[in-house]
Amino acid sequence: MEFSKKYGKLMEQLGFKKNEIQFYFALLEMGRARVRDIAQKAGIHRVNAYATLESLLKKGLVTQEFLAKGSHSRLITPVKPTHLIELARDAQKKATRLRWGFEDALPELEALCNIEGFRPKVKFFEGIEGMKAVYEDTLKEGKEIMAFTGWEELERVKSFREYMEVYPKERAQRGIGIRILCKPSDISAYWETRKKEELREQRYLPEEYQIGTEINIYGDKIGILSFKQEQIGIIIESKEIAYTLRMAFELIWATAPSQASGVQRTGTRRKK
After folding, report:
1. What pTM did the predictor assign?
2. CATH code for 2-79?
3. Rounded distance, CA 240 to CA 192, Å?
């Protein structure tokens, strides 16, 4: 059985078990034989030999011929070793398809990866619906929201305005309050007029500070939205990052004025 020792490892890499390898190489040497004779030469228990035979039949490596109708006696013949090449090619094709599948899935798998609890989970969203998904996540979380908001940039996205008439009401109905740091303007003054029914507090940054990207801090998450050409949304889930940004927000909030100086409170929005 030197063949099984020499080439057995190759067959193992194709998924063959030890008994299958010994059975097949014993049969190759015998050419054609009964199961009991193959089992004896291969050093396999006769009961195990029948189970091994069934496995090799399924893999197409042997054939069988019953000696008489209704008889259990049969002769087993090995399929030529060239079939092993076909099996290897099939295995290679499957491995290639599997690799392609993992390559396609890798970005999402890496985004979910949270090795030792230190790596934040990040989700990316595109387009108007993607940005809405970030807002919807704040509703699911159900925690107070701290936001750096550029009302002017948000208002420029006309297709988003209708949603912004619905979202604050839904948020308020769920009892989720929001505190906003923003630039003083007529648009921020408009939202100020609705603060009571929409559970909103606003404080104001110096006018020279432009906010082109909205940042929402809620629970252990940070929602980032870019309303300009990119129109993307990002959700980062990280307790440490959320804590740091929350502390930064509180520091600014503590000294920011609740009244916008130099802005006439007309309570008007940009024309649609």
Report:
1. 0.55
2. 1.10.10.10
3. 31
Residues 218/150, Cβ–Cβ less than 8 Å: no
Strand, coil or helix: 80:
coil
CB 168 within 8 A of CB 198: yes
CB 148 within 8 Å of CB 226: no
| Residue 117 neighbours by CB under 8 Å, 6+ apart | none
Q: Say which CATH superfamily domain 120-255 falls into.
A: Endonuclease Chain A (3.30.870.10)
pLDDT at 237: 92
CA distances from 118 to 91, 115, 141, 219, 239 (A): 38, 6, 21, 17, 9
Domain boundaries, the chain: 2-79, 120-255
Contact 205, 181 (CB under 8 A): yes
Nearest to 179 by CA among 146, 223, 139: 146
Give the integer Cα–Cα distance in Å for 140 and 246.
19
User: In degrees rounded to 5, what are phi and psi of residue 265?
Assistant: -80, 80
Model confidence at 122: pLDDT above 80: yes
Mean pLDDT computed over 70-89: 85
Quote the DSSP letter at residue 21.
H
* DSSP assignments along 124-170, one per residue: EEEHHHHHHHHHHHHHHH-S-EEEEE-HHHHHH-HHHHHHHHHHHHH
Which tokens in the block code for residue 183?
Answer: 């630039």
Burial of 147 (0-12, 13-18, 19+ CB in 10 A): buried
